[in-house]
Amino acid sequence: MKSLKLSPAQRASVELEIRKRRRLAPRITLLPHQIPPDGDWVRWILLSGRGGGKTYAAAHYVDEYARANPGARIAIIAPTLGDARKTCVEGVAGILSFNRNVKFNRSWGELHWPNEAQGTLFGAHTPDDAERLRGPQHHLVWFEEMAAARELEDSWTNMRLGLRLGDRPRVIISTTPKPRPLLKRLLDDPGTVVTRATTADNPYLHESVRTELYRLYEGTRIGRQELGAEILDDNPDALWTREVIEASRVSRVAAMNAGLQCRGFRKMGTVTCLTISRCRGRLMRGLSRQ
Fold this sequence. Notes:
Helix content is 32%, strand content 14%. The protein has 290 residues and is an alpha/beta fold. The chain has an 8-stranded mixed β-sheet, sandwiched between helices. The radius of gyration is 25 Å and the shape is globular.
């Protein structure tokens, strides 16, 4: 029988089909913002716009960590337990999409690697979810879409108290930003390494999808947050923005010397009132010192 000789293109096509039949997604070369940071870090925050590739990067790191650390105990937290299962494990960028050697027990919410490394899924939606994190200990934690978690503070506290196995326990946070106090504190913490990416930084996102998202939301407030990965602190309905307040700030001594006093101010009308003319209040200017 004659052996069949395949051209490089034919061989690549056959290998791709084999991967499809085995339900193995082809490996994607990590983008610069998906590469784990060097150094002895404690927290790695992947702050990314929608579709920026943060979930794939975190799932890839978790899988590589589990392969390299037999018996490791890993927590995978998402806003809900269903999110953890559908996005972090079974999703198109989840752990099973590129490692089918991992056994997933959907009933228990557990992943088992061949080397006895183990991952457990948690939600952060209810007080009971936060309490589930009170007992377990872990070497590594992955917190997916942390800024969208309802019970964020309690979940984080219980998780952090259990992150105590090994000589260098670590946590990965992959999230599109929201102005959550905990997230802002962590971003300012010297133990945090931050990687930022926008939706446009992922070339694997189809061009038509990227074009439509930017057509709809570029230049808008939601676009700055969801595509540009900016943390937006200001309330768009506020009478004065933080920038205006900071630019107008004077010292107490200067205010006293000018004889300025504010007895009170009350905003009337709807929350979308943007002009002082639609508000009623009482502003009093003190007499200058004689």
